[in-house]
Design the sequence.
């Protein structure tokens, strides 16, 4: 399996704070790879190091086979990190022309196509000073893709977008991977979005990698027992930290071996069980478990 | 790669009409207008003088005659191109260019795909081009002003350009260009270190004023104007010294012995010093905090 990004013992410290703490990460070529983590997990620091905006305190990082700062390797990558900003006096078309020149690519003919692909054709000749955050995101994505890179790093690509815009962006990201063969690495707080669009994910917490794998593997391994039972409050009380309310029922974080004993205990406690079935975990619950966050009980 | 960065910077500057107006157009327009107004005011005085019955007829004839040599105007104009007004307004464009990526938070869009030294040198190259364009427009304005003056005073226009004059023109223009670029390089260093447009504008101004008044500050301390420290501290005066050397004759003869070498070193110091400092600083800079 060839990798597009590889880090070994990557560390970044700011005074006494370790934003990255010996991160070992290998991102394979192909598909969409999600990097998830709570605020302060080190995602942005990782991207900033990979783009050469800051230097690592220790460890190594390679991008497209070259070290960070290897311009030939970096030119095979496109990126958009955080909400992009542009010179406000330029139009969207001029911004893309400027970036094409800056990236040394003859992409003049491609500009209308990219504007159309990110849904900015009608705003192409408007100055960017009047653009919404969502429009800036779209333009940033077009700028990242203009040089036809093999790898694209996108940090929160749907931030500030309306629901139809999010859907369009999701479709664009998938088509980049499926139709254009681009490896997309994205960071997002929208866990549902990550689950829908990514093939593999890395979950980071406090500067470290805590879980990595295919989305299908991660969600399958987090299977939980869903109980429809009355009274729900009593079930939650008995399960303690292993249970969380889910609508009218309870999700129990137990293994297949533990399930019969649990059901027996609930029945003995006078609980009326209507239904008990195994449900796959969503990425959110995997994320919450891996990052040590308690799930917020669903109302109901 | 450097070529890509230069093309991109030039394109970006070409779209910034505000910066282009203030750094290229404003001073030529103002000097043209002031020059034309001055010509009309002086014409009124001349008419009054020539109308004086007591003035000898020979003097009247001498005053009423004469030609205006555009070639000579070009040569003297080239020597005066790095005046404070031009320095100030070219600095506006230069500061916008040097500090723009911090101000608009655009480093993150461009820094991964080119080396930082290329990005910095591209900005310097575009500012050097901007200075040339500003000088060319100033010379055009000066030519137009002379044509207006000739029309107002009813003088005949001529154009002479000997080999010696052409050499002087090129030397003066080169020195003026060097002085403008050198002045804006302080703005470059200020922009890269402070990440601030205001600093890129005001630090060169403060340093420039300090350079200008350095002789007055140093003489009371016992440092004579031709001493190493005095010449090194004042690149503007160093340009005048080299200009006098180019002019030759009495101007060159009046220069203190050995001041030429000091002047060249002063120019080199103020040109390569800020550049070397910026090239050392920028590649290590954390660009996540734009």
Sequence:
């Amino acid at each position: 399996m060839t990798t597009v990004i590889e880090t070994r013992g990557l560390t970044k410290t700011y005074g006494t704070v370790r934003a990255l703490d010996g991160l070992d990460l290998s991102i394979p070529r192909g598909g969409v790879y999600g990097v998830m983590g709570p605020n302060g997990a080190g995602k942005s620091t990782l991207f900033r190091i990979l783009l050469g905006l800051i230097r690592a305190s220790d460890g190594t990082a390679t991008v497209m086979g070259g070290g960070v700062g290897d311009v030939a390797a970096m030119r095979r990558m496109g990126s958009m990190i955080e909400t992009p900003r542009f010179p406000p006096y330029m139009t969207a078309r001029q911004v893309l022309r400027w970036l094409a020149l800056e990236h040394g690519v003859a992409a003049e003919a491609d500009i209308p196509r990219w504007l159309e692909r990110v849904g900015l054709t009608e705003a192409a000749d408007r100055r960017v000073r009047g653009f919404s955050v969502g429009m800036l995101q779209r333009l940033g994505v077009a700028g990242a893709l203009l040089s036809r890179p093999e790898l694209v790093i996108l940090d929160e690509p749907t931030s500030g977008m309306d629901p139809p815009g999010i859907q369009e962006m999701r479709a664009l990201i998938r088509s980049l991977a499926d139709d254009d063969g681009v490896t997309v690495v994205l960071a997002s707080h929208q866990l549902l979005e990550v689950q829908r669009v990514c093939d593999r994910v890395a979950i980071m917490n406090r500067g470290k990698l805590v879980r990595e794998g295919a989305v299908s593997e991660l969600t399958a391994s987090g299977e939980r027992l869903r109980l429809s039972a009355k009274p729900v409050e009593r079930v939650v009380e008995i399960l303690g930290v292993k249970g969380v309310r889910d609508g009218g029922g309870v999700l129990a974080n137990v293994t297949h071996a533990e399930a019969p004993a649990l059901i027996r205990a609930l029945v003995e406690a006078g609980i009326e069980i209507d239904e008990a079935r195994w449900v796959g975990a969503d990425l959110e619950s995997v994320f919450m478990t891996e990052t040590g966050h308690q799930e917020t009980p669903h109302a109901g | 790669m450097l070529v890509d960065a230069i093309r991109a910077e030039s394109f970006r500057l070409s779209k910034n009409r505000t910066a282009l107006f203030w750094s290229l157009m404003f001073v030529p327009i103002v000097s043209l207008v002031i020059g034309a107004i001055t010509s009309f005011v002086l014409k009124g005085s001349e008419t009054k003088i020539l109308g004086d019955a007591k003035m000898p007829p020979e003097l009247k004839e001498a005053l009423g005659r004469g030609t205006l040599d555009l070639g000579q105007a070009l040569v003297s104009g080239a020597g005066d191109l790095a005046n404070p007004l031009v320095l100030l307004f070219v600095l506006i464009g230069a500061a916008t260019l040097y500090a723009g990526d911090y101000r608009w938070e655009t480093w993150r869009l461009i820094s991964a795909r080119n080396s930082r030294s290329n990005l910095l040198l591209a900005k310097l190259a575009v500012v050097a081009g901007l200075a040339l364009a500003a000088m060319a427009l100033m010379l055009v304005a000066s030519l137009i002003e002379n044509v207006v003056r000739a029309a107002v005073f009813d003088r005949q226009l001529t154009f002479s350009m000997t080999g010696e004059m052409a050499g002087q023109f090129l030397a003066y223009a080169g020195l003026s260009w060097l002085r403008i670029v050198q002045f804006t390089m302080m703005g470059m260093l200020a922009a890269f270190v402070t990440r601030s447009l205001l600093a890129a504008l005001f630090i060169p101004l403060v340093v420039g004023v300090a350079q200008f008044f350095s002789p007055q500050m140093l003489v009371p301390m016992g440092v004579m104007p031709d001493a190493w420290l005095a010449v090194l501290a004042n690149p503007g005066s160093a340009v005048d010294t080299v200009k006098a050397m180019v002019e030759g004759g009495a101007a060159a003869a009046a220069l203190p012995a050995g001041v030429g070498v000091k002047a060249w070193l002063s120019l080199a110091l103020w040109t390569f010093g800020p550049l070397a400092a910026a090239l050392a600083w920028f590649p290590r800079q954390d660009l996540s905090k734009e």
In short: Residues 223-279 of chain A form a domain with the Alpha-Beta Plaits fold (CATH 3.30.70).
